[in-house]
Amino acid sequence: MIDIDQANATAVERMMSARPILRKVAPAREVIPGLRDRQLLHAGPPITWERASGPLRGAIIGACIFEGWAAGAAEAEALITSGQIELAPCHHYGAVGPMAGVTSPSMQVYVVENVTHGNLAFSNLNEGYGKVLRYGAYSEEVLAKLRWMNDVMGPILAAALDHSGEGIDIRALLSESLHMGDEGHNRNKAGSILYTARLAPLIVQVVDDKQTAAEVLKFLGDNALSVLNPVMAACKAMADAGHGVEGSTIMTTMARNGTDLGIRVSGLGDRWFTGPAQVPDGLYFPGFTSSDANPDIGDSTITETAGIGAFAMASAPAIVTFISGTPQDAMNATREMYEITVAEHKQFTIPALGFRGTPTGVDIRKVVELGITPRINTGIAHREAGIGQVGAGLVRPPMSVFEEALVAFAEKYLD
Asked: Would you give the DSSP letter of residue 390?
């Protein structure tokens, strides 16, 4: 007879003891094992072009143009519908990407190493706000920024990290930023400042041209989401450390592609359990309403999976000015998540709760038994490609994915 509680304790201990270090930046094809030419990675569970949402389709088209596979949207779509471009989830390759999450072979990616267990995780670079590829925009302005990031900023970040000799401890950075008002998913202002501060002296040392160094530092410093992508890769490295524990009911993946939300469970291998992605409830930018919103999209729910994001809202009461609600709502959100998790994080603590550890390790049994699904902090994408972010708010996954996973667990272990 399996000991589920012991298996869960093992899985969560592995997640919490994982120490993710940002080691380098390099082209995806050079560092992501198994990534093939003419292949694009995307956020969320597997999906076909026919079922893809507007933002995801736009990002796929933009990536084809960025790679030089197509000269424009019509040519890119023809390549995709003819089967010449392969689509695959980032999660199948140890990677994660915010919103559409599209990562192509030439794109520079962060490489994070979990030095405790030896696994790697990857994420692309953050474009900042406005019209960006991750929201499905692919105008020449968008592609020009991507090329600058890839050809100028990426190699500079790579040289800076190499010069550091030891990389950047993202777990330590996260722990500090939680004490400064961040929650690690939608609010990363403190973390991005800390990240830029750690990189600044290294960049100055490896870049001879002061103007170029200043442009890179300004780009990082002006973007309150600069650290989100390495944080996501760090959370992926932590969550993957807890995956594959026989008999464990701990959720180790939660991701959305703009059409479906999917989860994976530690003791159930790499099988996805999927249901319809929901439209977030939140605050909309002037001129937009919920009728403009795309269903939830992105791999950034890896943060909640690892015990931060909406699970750490009590650390970031100011986030309610962005997603709606009151500071008390933020406290209540974290308290509710203790009900469906099995541990309190040893590294991520919340001052407002007496430095209690963040709720970590979603147990699908508790979700189904209590009828409480995980909370998610999220940006809201317009349903049409290229318009961009139209708001931010809260959303939950459909209960059906947890019910389906629990039935599969029972069939595997309890029959």
From this structure: E
Most distant CA pair in the chain, distance: 66
**Number of residues written out for the chain:** 415
Instruction: State which amino acid sits at residue 57.
Output: R
pTM of the model: 0.97
Cβ–Cβ under 8 Å, residues 26 and 108: yes
Ramachandran class of 274: left when φ > 0, alpha when ψ lies in -120 to 50, beta otherwise:
beta
Topology match between the domains 18-231 and 244-413: no
Q: Summarize the confidence of residues 166-191 as an average pLDDT.
A: 97
The confidence score (pLDDT) of residue 29 equals 98
**Whether pLDDT at 323 is above 90:** no
pLDDT at 198 over 80: yes
Handedness of CA 27, 29, 30, 32 (dihedral sign): positive
Highest CATH level, class, for 244-413: alpha beta
> What would the pLDDT profile of 270-311 be if each residue is shown by its tens digit?
999 999 999 999 899 999 999 999 999 999 999 999 999 999
Crossing angle of the two packed helices 228-241 and 170-178, in degrees rounded to 10: 110
Pick the CATH number of 18-231 from 1.10.287.1260, 1.10.760.10, 3.30.70.1170, 3.90.1710.10: 3.90.1710.10
- Beta-bridged to residue 360, according to DSSP, are 343
Residue 139 sits at φ, ψ, to 5 deg, of: -65, 170
Measured CA angle at 131 (ends 281, 50), to 5 deg: 70
Task: Name which of 255, 210, 244 is nearest 96 in CA terms.
Answer: 255
Per DSSP, the three-state class of 22 is strand
